[in-house]
Design goal:
With 150 residues, the chain is mainly beta. Helices cover 13% and strands 43% of the residues. The chain contains 2 helices and 7 strands. The protein has a 5-stranded mixed beta barrel with strand order 1-3-4-6-5. Keywords: DNA damage, DNA recombination, DNA repair, DNA replication, DNA-binding.
Length: 150
């Protein structure tokens, strides 16, 4: 059917560290467990209620998989944009099972970190703020002054 859209947007927190696997080709595939929560007040009792949904996110996009593997950890807040897919598989007893996932395909989808990246000990020397500042500085900035040329 033309004119249809399959797009899922999630903003939530990781319930565990990313799970990284490698395909036979060596390309990474990352699985995330993302929690989204909503809260409300019960009309009858006035009590605060909350419901959490868990979403399985699978990343086939190599660049986004590397970002997830390197910077995301349990508790990281993320923005995820992908497609909803259901796949069929069989358990050990031969029973058909179905799993619904948000999938970020090889050249599609989006993953954004909404808080500061969580670093491994081996990466603790990485200065995100300094890198961000350098990324926004023009290459010829040291020779500039405040005088206008006209």
């Amino acid at each position: 059917m033309s004119g249809s859209i399959n797009k899922v947007i999630l903003v939530g927190n990781l319930g565990s560290d990313p799970e990284v696997r490698r395909l036979n080709s060596g390309e990474p595939v990352v699985t995330l467990s993302v929690a989204t929560s909503e809260s409300w007040r019960d009309k009858n009792t006035g009590d605060k209620k909350e419901r959490t949904e868990w979403h399985r996110v699978v990343i086939f996009n190599e660049h986004l998989a590397k970002v997830a593997e390197q910077y995301l950890r349990k508790g990281s807040k993320v923005y995820v944009e992908g497609q909803l897919q259901t796949r069929k598989w069989q358990d050990q007893s031969g029973q058909d099972k179905y799993t619904t996932e948000v999938v970020l395909q090889k050249y599609r989808g989006d993953l954004q970190m909404l808080d500061a990246p969580k670093m491994d000990d081996k990466q603790s020397g990485y200065n995100i703020e300094a890198d961000a500042q350098l990324a926004h500085e023009p290459a010829n900035a040291p020779g500039l002054d405040d005088d206008l040329p006209f």
